[in-house]
Design goal:
This protein is mainly α. Helix content is about 60%, strand content about 0%. The chain contains 16 helices and two strands. Strands 1-2 form a two-stranded parallel ribbon. The protein starts with a helix and ends with a helix. The N terminus and C terminus are likely disordered.
Amino acid sequence: MTDTIVETTNEKYHGLTHAEIDSLGAELDALRLRTIADLGEPDAEYLRKVVKAQRSFEIAGRALFYLPPAWPLAVASLSVSKILDNMEIGHNVMHGQYDWMGDPAFNSRQFDWDTMAPAENWKYGHNYMHHTYTNIVGKDRDVGYGILRMDEDQKWRPIYLGNPLYAFLLMTFFEWGVAVHDLEAEEVLAGRRPLFRGENAPIWRRLRKKMGKQILKDYVLFPLLTGPFFLSTLAGNFTANIIRNIWTFNIIFCGHFPAGVATFTEEETENETRGQWYLRQMLGSANITGSKLMHVMSGNLSHQIEHHLFPDIPARRYPEMAVEVQEICERYGLPYNTGSLPRQLFSVFKKIVRLAFPGGKTPAAPVRGPQAVIDDSLAA
């Protein structure tokens, strides 16, 4: 199928010839192998330091709930702990980035995180479905999460007038949205998938168990441990979860939905080569510029392009890999979508609002080659 596409687009696909795409893939494979060969104790030590910091922030936060005047400090400390657990530790460990350490505590098959989504469900929906079918409309369920219209190729329906409201609710309760994502609510509502039976039965069982555990921990057990401060601790845990949800949502949406990020059709990506897979990941992701602290707090998902190219490489390596990836992009004439957090956020929320209405158009992803002569004005 890809051969057919190349022949009908002046022997180029997204501005590159077959040979150029193969060469691009070989260069990225070489970068991947060089980085893997260099992994070692500094990477393991980094992860242990992050885990130690995360636990310190959690202990401090839990302890400060016994001092009511320190409630804002307790919430801040617990929020930092939950963000580190979710982003730099949980997300990356469950991608298998540290399986090579041979440490059961950081093995992707055994690790679980402090959020509503069961690890097993998430690894299928995210690691497999999202990372395999990145930005293929109709295959990658992260394009709109089943409730949002985030691409022009999603047919407009009146229900999408609520796009901004749905986005706000998803942002606020993001861990709940991620948790129920694999139940495929849109298929359930369409009557094509039973909610509690069939494929959803094992997903639902794991979901109930994990949600029960999280609710018991944050909204019963830890509040009870603070005795007379039960309600303030409960409110503090709730607030810390909301802060983590908002931060996580914004980082993830800025990595996938700013202007210029490309989407793809199922037909276009059928039988794609490894080089074409790399190309799709590069064109379908976006980075966020910022300080080292911002990168750590985002789990280095501020380097979403590098994460999608190399999802099982320790994320702390992405900043150094980004230098070479950007140079490769420049040499092949490919866009490297990056910008500050405010810039990417504005672009994302503009898209959320614009696509709520019929006929909504967003800037096209920049391409190279003959087609670029027409599309560059849209990408500017």
